[in-house]
Amino acid sequence: MSNWYPDGIFPLGTDTTVYQAEVFAVLQAAYTLAPMHVAEASIDIFVDSLSTVQALGSAVRGNQQMCECCMVLNSLALQHAVTLHWIPAHCGYLGNETADGLAKEAAETQFLGPEPVIL
């Protein structure tokens, strides 16, 4: 899903859970970084959802979105050192506060299209 709304947010519909949105965000970050061809660059992805970081590190894959996310991250890790970091939410990390603001805006934006967006 790369059809971002013009203002840079992507509403995920009314039935999307916070967990699904967190996994979706990691997946989109991985897709965005995948075409970059910077030799030996390390990639650090910061996530404020401990359950998302734990699930991505687990051998058990719960759903199609999680499987896709792991596949894209693993593919990215063939070319780069990829590390997922958990950071506590609402603790003043500038990037995280920005992401939370965009997430809130996306949650308040009406989704145009059939639902559910994420299964």
Helical amount among residues, as a percent range?
40-55%
What is the overall shape? Answer: globular
The CATH architecture classification of one domain is: 2-Layer Sandwich
In percent terms, what proportion of residues is strand? 5-15%
Distance between the ends: 13 Å
Secondary structural class? mainly alpha
CATH topology of one domain: Nucleotidyltransferase, domain 5
How many β-strand runs?
2
Number of helices: 4
CATH superfamily of one domain: Ribonuclease H-like superfamily/Ribonuclease H
Query: What low-confidence regions span 5 or more consecutive residues with pLDDT below 50?
Result: none
Biggest β-sheet description = 2 strands, parallel
CATH class of one domain: Alpha Beta
State the order of secondary-structure elements, H for helix, E for strand.
HEHHEH
Strands ordered across the widest β-sheet? 1-2
Task: Indicate the radius of gyration in whole angstroms.
Answer: 14 Å
The overall pLDDT average reads: 80
Plain-language structure description:
By secondary structure, the chain is mainly α. It has a domain at 38-107: Nucleotidyltransferase, domain 5. Helix content is 44%, strand content 10%. It has 4 helices and 2 strands; from the N terminus they run H-E-H-H-E-H. The chain has helices spanning 18-33, 50-57, 64-77, 94-107, and strands at 42-47, 81-86. Strands 1-2 form a two-stranded parallel ribbon. The longest helix has 16 residues, at 18-33. It is globular and about 40 Å long. The two termini are 13 Å apart. The model has no long low-confidence stretch (mean pLDDT 80).
